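hiii, so i know i said id send this last week but things got crazy w the move. better late than never?? heres the sequnce for the chain we talked about at the cafe, plus the structure i predicted for it. fair warning i was half asleep when i ran it
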Amino acid sequence: RVERDDDLPLCWFSSTFDHQPGRSHWSDWPGLKVIVPQILVAQRHDQIDVVFHGQSLEDLAESERLFDHFLGNVKPCSPVDAFSSVKRLWSESPDDFEQRVARVTEQLGKDLHKVVLANCCHHQGRNSPLEGVLDNLMSSERYGVHFACTQGGESVFAGCTPETLVQQDGSQWSAHVLAGTRRRSQVGAKDELLSSAKDRREHELVATGMIESLDPWVDTLEVPSEPKVRSLDHLYHLERHLQGRVRSSTGFLDLVGALHPTAALGGYPQASAVTYLRDCETLERGGFGAPFGWISGVQQGHAAVAIRSALLRGNAVSIFAGAGVVAQSDPQTEHAEVAAKIASIETELLGLNS
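okay and structure toks below
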């Protein structure tokens, strides 16, 4: 039973990409996990709300005691040591990744039009990156959802994602199409992105896949005719915002389940791409590209896509990024896109010079 009269989150959820227990570096992630926080602290503008959850008055009193203890032991922040990386290693070498892109383009056809291939860059450091990453996230004005979460083990997954999967507020819903990338450092990158047949094709497949996934669940769906350019710190992306009204029986988790993985992180058609990744991709994605967010009610919630992110474990960091492969893809260009995304995370989260 819930006795709340506000619109603050009731629970938080995070997942692995395939909702299955994680392996390798993700071994302490059981898969899909929903958490009702014992203590919720929410700040909106100048107002801070503190909400205690419990199954009895004794539980609520214990939560309040814990919060008072926390406040009584707050200390001034000490300077955070910069993360020092002593070893940097790709999960899949650039040459091997480019060869995989080439193989995929040969397999694209009637039943598979796009596949998103992922790679990972590992750092081993002299010190833990956790405090520095959290400090960077707290102070960053970077566009997106800033997050740091764990599923109960020692690893922490953190980042700042520019991509919303879907959000619902009663009968209203909205979703985000983000696909097509250029490095901002390239001369004429914005105009080149808008005119690129390859990037427009990739973006259109994402939009088409999302529309098809949403169709059984919504009554209305508004789609801008043309994408616009989203300008981030190091990258440009093509984006569109979809919106409309849901059917009366559609809940927030129905929308999340239908959309994930979109063609921006899986491929198109959705079923064929998921089968390909399950059978052919050796990288353990874990939480990368998975949905996460908060739920305030059956028809109210917000799910983001866990990209622009890193997995922190002790003194080690694993940074993930992907690139959408379509028939017009060039292997070297796709690797360069992954490398650019990873370099931006190294700079923004870890404070490393790219």
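btw The two ends are 51 Å apart (CA to CA). thought thatd interest u
miss u guys!!
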